[in-house]
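Page header: ASSEMBLY MODEL / two components / 418 residues total.
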Amino acid sequence: MAKGMRDIKREIKSKQNTKQITKAMEMVAASRLRKAQEAAQASRPYAEKLKEVVASIAAGTRDVKHPMLETRPVKKTGYLVITSDRGLAGGYNANILRKVTLTIREKHKSSDEYVLFVIGRKGRDYFRRRNMPIVEEVTGLPDAPSFADIKAVANAAVKNFSEGAYDELYIYYNEFVNAITQIPTAVRLLPLEEVGGNTAVTSYEYEPSPEGVLEVLLPKYAETLIYSAVLDGKASEFGARMTAMGSATKNATKIINQLTLTYNRARQAAITQEISEIVAGANAQS
Amino acid sequence: MSSFLVEIVTPERKVYAETANMVSVSGVEGELGILPNHIPLVTPLRIAPVVIKRGNKVDVIAVNGGFIEVRRDKIVILAESAELSTDINIERAEAAKQRAQQRLAAKQDQIDFRRAELALQRAMNRLHVKQK
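Prediction written out in full:
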């Protein structure tokens, strides 16, 4: 009996260690989540302003022509997928990758019909294992990504579209709702939707010309949309990790309680047995 | 003296928001000095310092790759990056400048060349602002 008790004790100890780790990870994720949310908030004025200006150009001038606004017959599709570098974040990566894979399997017959841009090690490894065509990848993104960190991939995604490498570009990321809910979302980024909106149109002068300004603004606008998706993805990642680690901690507590109960029972049984042995021994002697 | 609100916004944060009397920038078509009640205008900017006068103070800000939106009572500059002279690390800018110059001297393919050119412009811009 004594040996069984030692085993249980060891198991309790090991569960306690695990619990400590998951608890720490939960707290780290919680503090990063706050920062990520703040970053997402801080990026909003820029995106909104840009949208406002683009919308007012689009509304103020008749038939603006720009390759990024034109819908072409779709021969090839680009997918930009945002995942995380590390796991232990619940269904964060699995959900988004499943969504992408399902769409691709449904829409395309061969791997010539699409290309992938991947952010995050998890996604890259996943697609690489399946031999899917990855054009550009970014890994090792810091927890608070700056615009410069994702500029290369955003730039490539936008440029390849204008050069006609593909005819539409979708962006897949986890939309952040709150710490326990993240929704895998697909957004068509290019060609840009009608950037309407009911902003009061100010009639601007454009230098050199409306088209010239649009030329500069639209790629920037698309890049900004990608950037805010990345920030949203980061916030989701930490939310997912926080929740996953929170429930891991809870499960560990439950297991520890159960084991402690079993341990105490075993201890009690051992004592009872010892007493009855002594009594039996004493009785035999007299 | 009449004044207006000047804001400089980057994707990461709002860098600057002050009430000012005059702004001078270099747009793609040339230098622009903007006073309050200017006609609404949008133009892309070159990589260059933006000079903002408020009262008897002058702020100089290194703005990289952006555009300016002018309204009668407000100016918004949207840029990929913008630094006040106190935020600029002179050694880093100096190092970036040399790196860019080396790359320009090496003269590889077109894209690299263009990128090095832009990097050099950014570095020069920062140094310029810092020295003012």
